[in-house]
Amino acid sequence: MSDVAIDNKLLLRMYRRMVMIRLFEEQVNDLYTRALMPGLAHLYIGEEAIAVGVCEALRSDDYITSTHRGHGHCLAKGAAIDRMFAELLGKEAGYCKGKGGSMHIADPDTGNLGANAIVAGSAGIATGAAFSSKRLGNGRVTVCFFGEGALGQGVVYEVMNMAALWKLPVIYVCENNMYNEYTHVSEAAAGDILARGPAFGVPSESVDGQDVRAVYSVTQRLAERARRGEGPSFLMANTYRFMGHHVGDISREYYRSKQEEQTWKSERDPIKVATEAILSQNIADRAALGRIQAEVKAEIEKAVQFAMAAPYPNVDEVEQDVYA
Amino acid sequence: MPETAVAVRELTLGEAVREALAEEMRRDPRVFIMGEDVAEAGTAFKVLGGLVQEFGTDRVLDTPISEAGFTGIGVGAGMTGMRPVVDIMFGDFAGLIMDQMANQAAKIHYMSGGKWKCSMVLRTTLGATRRSAAQHSQSLHAWFCHIPGLKVVMPSTPYDAKGLLKSAIRDDNPVVFYEDKMMYKLKGPVPEDDYTIPLGVADVKRAGDDITIIATSSMVQVALGAAKLLEEHGVSAEVVDPRTLWPLDEKTLIDSARKTSRVIVVDEGYGRYGVTAELAAMIQENAFFDLEAPVKRMGAMHVPIPFSPPLEDATVPTERTVCEAALALCGK
Ligand SMILES: Cc1ncc(C[n+]2csc(CCOP(=O)(O)OP(=O)(O)O)c2C)c(N)n1
């Protein structure tokens, strides 16, 4: 693998983005706990390096599709935190005027085709976007994010087959956090996941999803490949969700042990992994990283205040946007 | 309503569903449950807790997230000696399983000249106002009602849920059984004994003289609340629950319409080309000359269900809006 080198500025930028996602999600959890947020949310804590590493390797006009666990993808692709919070609270100022909520953030300005609450629901959309890019010759790549649970859906294999037949510029990024809700991947996916793509001629590989540098490098390579017209690829990022399936999933011991959670948190935290890299290579010192955290924290606080104070949409809005 | 006379014990609707399943699984070894996170997790709504402990993972099977695939397996198993109860977490996922239900399960009996039978139950959910947005809030039961060969069951109380689910499991046809997510915690009397409620028998949930409110699933509770409000305005409302949308107990609905001469139909699905349209048409075809006013239909607004609470709340009928519609119909 001839993966590209990562310069210091880029690593610090990715560090900041990961911290932003982490603090954003902690704030979401807090809003839920204090009964200030309607409904539920699926937190991305623990998986930040994937969204950040992938999206940093993309152009700003490249497309992504996201999932129910989508806040990290949207933020990594450039969404503004104040409008994200506003959407999560159902406010008019949100990305979707409050109509989408946590699971449906969409934003054409950042190439976000939409977060999708149907598992594998965006596989077709992502592949269709890649189809457009190829026909329109605009050089855009599409990344289709999904959890390993989506491997259960037939549509994934239908579109991978067509993407390979037609050499479409799409990267299928499978975030394997090992659990489909409350069921372990070993009970849901038979055989070798990485052998599935090659059966269609879709090159497939895995990456350490806790190491933002590794994710960035491999995505760079796969995106270049797609842009050269060489077709789709499949990337499995191995990771772990540190929190529950959703914010209300508090007692988890019937499906995974506290010990397992603790090991991932203490040994495989993507922010810790990046911190160690930054410190050991003398890219920045602890104080500098502390300043980044404080800055992000202040931004988050401001954004959440904005969202809390923002008005709900007018009730007439309910009938707008049904048709274009 | 014999139920109140018999029962003292109260269960939630979720508990009633679980009890029906447990009793049927004890009675008939062919019955098994299949779906996502139905075993240790007891479903996303925590309705089936304890079943895997009693019946084991051979009869309470966790599946991959492969709705089309495991629904199809349910169809095949239901044709060949098993009695599957397939669990589809959110009714919105009807989109994923429609071919298996509409083109396979619904048709095999007829296409085979009556030779094959498909005895399966598909349990799924409906209902908005959980702040779950457009892909997890729909009430799409009309889709199944449209297809000859499928039966569609919509319980509105814990008592009905238990009796109807047992009948559904014993039926030799594919039956779609709808549970309203917002009703899982609703309590009501449920006898401990083995009773069934036949599919195709409506129930008058409240007798009245001035207006008939035909309501389904959680809208029955809304209609009962509206009936109370109407009482304060001196209007006596009869609430009729068809309980199964197909087979449909037309007679009970028509009799009530003739008696009161005014009818509102309330159902949480979309009105356009939906359940309320069908029921209103049926009433008008059969009781036209007994009616004092056109049949009024109330359902979800014709929009995808929005996330934002004030918008979402506007999309579904409430006790207040049903009461207002009833007053208008009565000229008050
Ligand atoms: C088609 C479909 N089936 C079931 C669900 C319910 N559901 C929501 S998230 C989820 C698990 C998804 O697991 P995975 O794809 O691995 O993503 P993760 O939650 O681990 O990020 C399930 C079953 C759904 N939203 N869509």
Strand order of the largest sheet of chain A: 2-1-3-4-8-7
CATH topology of the largest domain in chain B: Rossmann fold
CATH-derived topology of chain A: Rossmann fold
Estimated structural class of chain A: alpha/beta
The second-level CATH architecture of chain A is: 3-Layer(aba) Sandwich
**Bound molecule types:** thiamine diphosphate
Strand order across the largest sheet of chain B? 3-2-4-5-7-6-12
Description:
The complex is a heterodimer of chains A (324) and B (332). Chain A is an alpha/beta fold. Chain A has one domain (8-309): 3-Layer(aba) Sandwich (Rossmann fold), CATH 3.40.50.970. Chain A has helices at residues 8-33, 48-56, 71-76, 81-88, 123-136, 154-165, 196-199, 212-227, 258-267, 270-280, 286-309; strands at 63-67, 112-116, 142-147, 170-176, 179-180, 183-184, 204-208, 233-238. In chain A, the strands form two sheets. Chain A has a six-stranded parallel β-sheet, with helices on both faces. A two-stranded antiparallel sheet of chain A has the order 5-6. The longest helix of chain A is centred in the N-terminal third of the chain and has 26 residues, at 8-33. The model of chain A has no long low-confidence stretch (mean pLDDT 97). Chain B is of the alpha/beta class. Helices cover 39% and strands 20% of the residues of chain B. Chain B has helices at residues 3-6, 13-27, 51-55, 67-79, 94-105, 108-111, 141-145, 158-170, 218-232, 250-260, 275-287, 309-315, 319-329, and strands at 10-12, 31-35, 60-62, 83-88, 121-126, 151-153, 175-180, 187-189, 203-206, 211-215, 237-241, 244-246, 263-270, 296-300. In chain B, the strands form three sheets. A seven-stranded mixed β-sheet of chain B has the order 3-2-4-5-7-6-12, sandwiched between helices. Chain B has a five-stranded mixed β-sheet with strand order 9-11-10-13-14, sandwiched between helices. In chain B, α9 (218-232) packs across α13 (319-329) and α10 (250-260) crosses α11 (275-287). The mean pLDDT of chain B is 97. The interface between A and B is large, with 42 and 35 residues. Thiamine diphosphate sits between chains A (42, 68-69, 117-119, 146-150, 177, 179-181, 245) and B (36, 65, 67, 89, 93, 96). Thiamine diphosphate (TPP) sits between chains A (42, 68-69, 117-119, 146-150, 177, 179-181, 245) and B (36, 65, 67, 89, 93, 96).
